[in-house]
Amino acid sequence: MEMALPDGEILRRGAEAVLVRGSWLGRDAVYKVREIKAYRHPDLDARIRSERTASEARIIGSLVQAGLPVPCLYDVDLHAATIVMEYIPGRRLKDVVPTLETNVLHAILHRLGETIAAMHGIGLIHGDLTTSNVIIENEAGPGSIEFRVIDFGLSRHSESIEDRSVDLHLFKRVVTSTHASAFDDLFPPFMDGYRAWMEDARKSDQFRQIETRMRGIEIRGRYVQKKERQ
Amino acid sequence: MTMEYCLGIESTAHTFSTGVVDRSGTVAGLASDTYVPAEGGLHPIKVAQHHVDCFQDIIWSALEKAGIEIEAIGLVAFSQGPGLGPCLRVGASIARTLHLRLGVPIVGVNHCVAHVEIGRLACAVDDPLTLYVSGGNTIVSAFDCGRYQVFGETLDIAVGNMLDAFARAAGLPHPGGPKIEALAGEAQVYIHLPYTVKGMDLAFSGLLTAATRALNSYSLADVAYSLQETAFAMLAEVTERALAHTEKTELLLTGGVAANGRLQEMIGLVAKDHGTRFVAVPRELAGDNGAMIAWAGILQFGCEGGLALEQTNIIPKWRLDDVPIPWRASPTC
Question: What span, in angstroms and rounded, lies between the C-alpha atoms of B110 and A225?
């Protein structure tokens, strides 16, 4: 069965879904459509698309309610595996990393760290935090750069230290692999922001557990030598 | 440099293999022997003993196939890691002996780098996203910033290890992959099993446990089929995510599990969806083999020269992304 995509400009054909720009009750909107994947078994495919659509919609709702910088949720259609949400004009963090000044980058990553800490604070794990999943809204100038976190297709509820640590570990891995030369401008400020939020929330003990667990996860992974990676 | 032929020695796991490759990348001779346990899994000491027992025959056989005398060897390369310590030590000892006896340079090669490099050579691709799936490794990697960066990998066991362990639990002989693939063809129903993808990483141990338990309630063929469908869909998803993320235009499938027809079909479909050129490394060069070690050795020797004897210690836990790749230009850094 082929699904018809909504009319409109295809913004991005990602790994999991197609993002189509359109309108919803007169507002600028994005239709996120999880297309059928011919490569996997139809039962598995239906399960993955429907479960992830429902879960993503619920999670966006919770994040909006918590006042975190994510797109607003407009509509959900489980049958068509489609979520309609607010359109965010701007560019992906991945694409602007080389063009931004170091201090601006530090400020963004610090606040991104705080945002992820706040997300973890309400019991949610992003699950796919990458520099492609942060949209820098059309820049107004230093100090006033706004961003939104997107793509909650792999997000889930969890308050465990392990899941939070894996979330941060995955982001570290993405920064290492995608922005190897800018690592120091990205990951340390991100972790500083995360730590700052945790300290403000009087959760320094938890933060220390997470830091320890992150080292544990690295060592647990395949083929990590005892020495710290450079 | 007078080196015409490089002799590569592979001994990271159950396969002992020797390849003879010339400077242009032609595989002149390749001989291998794979240890098959009578029962149970791979015991490192027993595998190492297998390598000790067969290495002379394998080396002579590779030289004979290449039609050269051992004196024609100008460089010795060996798998320095990652792998099973006792097995790596056998290959390293043989390489050191040849180095001293023949008076030729020695280089230690990263096994995972060798898999990628032989794939680039054999499939004539330049800058692929690589899905490397075997008994010991499950890695999605692409070149950036002077290294083969790891975008996704298993958080627990390798996919081939998972298939072998399931096969053992189901009473199938080692190696399990081909038997599971054959059984899957006879299946009637798809059973839902745990599907664990975390970003671009994946985990297989929960799937293994659930599939093993499912053997109590479903036919072996149905479980084998569902296990393959679930595990390979996970691999396809992380590959697709890495492809969308890196925007590479070539996709390379390699490692022992790359021989699986269903996996090739799925990864091929992912590539097609993204307009990406898909290649699978030919079977004889996809599994562990000495030719890939020889070829990676040639590349490495050209940039870095040989190792001193005291630098030839094995590195059982050597990450792919720890290895500088000076023979490839790195425009982004």
Answer: 14
Q: Is A43–B192 a contact, with Cβ atoms under 8 angstroms apart? A: yes
Tell me which of A12 and A108 has the higher pLDDT.
Answer: A108
Q: Which of B214, B210, B212, B131 is nearest to B172 (CA)?
A: B212
- The residue of chain B with its CA nearest to that of A18 is B244
Flag whether the pTM goes above 0.90. no
With contact defined as beta carbons under 8 Å apart, do B305 and A209 qualify?
no
CA angle, B208 then B213 then B215, to 5°: 100
- The residues, ordered by sequence, that sit 6+ positions from A150 with a Cβ below 8 Å of its Cβ are A70, A71, A88, A133, A134, A135
For A36, name the nearest residue in chain B, comparing CA atoms only.
B273
Nearest to A224 among B151, B241, B319 (CB): B319
Q: Which residues touch B253 (CB under 8 Å, ≥6 apart)?
A: B130, B131, B133, B263, B264, B267, B278, B279, B280, B281, B286
Contacts of B272 (CB under 8 A, 6+ apart): B278
Q: Please answer whether residues A185 and A112 qualify as being in contact, where contact means their C-beta atoms are separated by less than 8 angstroms.
A: no
Task: Centre a 10 Å sphere on the Cβ of residue A208 and count the other Cβ atoms it contains.
Answer: 12
ipTM of the complex, rounded to two decimals: 0.84
Q: Name the catalytic one among A128, A151, A167, A185.
A: A128
CB interface of B with A, residues 247-306, below 8 Å: 265-267, 269-270, 273-274
Provide the Cα torsion B262, B265, B268, B274; round to 10°: -100
**C-alpha span between B45 and B21 (Å, rounded):** 29
Q: Where are the beta strands (DSSP E) in chain B?
A: 5-10, 15-22, 27-34, 73-81, 106-110, 129-133, 138-144, 147-153, 197-198, 201-202, 250-254, 277-280
- For B271-303, the pLDDT digits (tens) are 999 999 999 999 999 999 999 999 999 999 999
Contacts of A152 in chain B (CB under 8 A): none
B145: left (phi over 0), alpha (psi -120 to 50) or beta: left
CA atoms of B102 and B73, how far apart (whole Å): 8
* A192 is annotated as an active-site residue: no
Tell me: pLDDT of A13 over 90: no
**What angle, rounded to 10 degrees, do the helices at B220-246 and B205-214 form?**
160
Per-residue model confidence as pLDDT tens digits over A163-197: 999 999 999 988 998 898 899 999 999 999 999 99
**Residue of chain B nearest A174, judged by CA positions:** B151
Q: How many residues does chain B have?
A: 333
Question: What would the two tokens of residue A36 be?
Answer: 């059928």
CB contact under 8 A, B230 and A38: no
Burial A2-36 (b: 16+ CB within 10 A, else e): eeeebeeeeeeebbbbbbbbbebeeeebbbbbbbe
Residues of B in contact with A229 (CB under 8 A): 319, 322
Whole-number mean pLDDT of chain B?
95
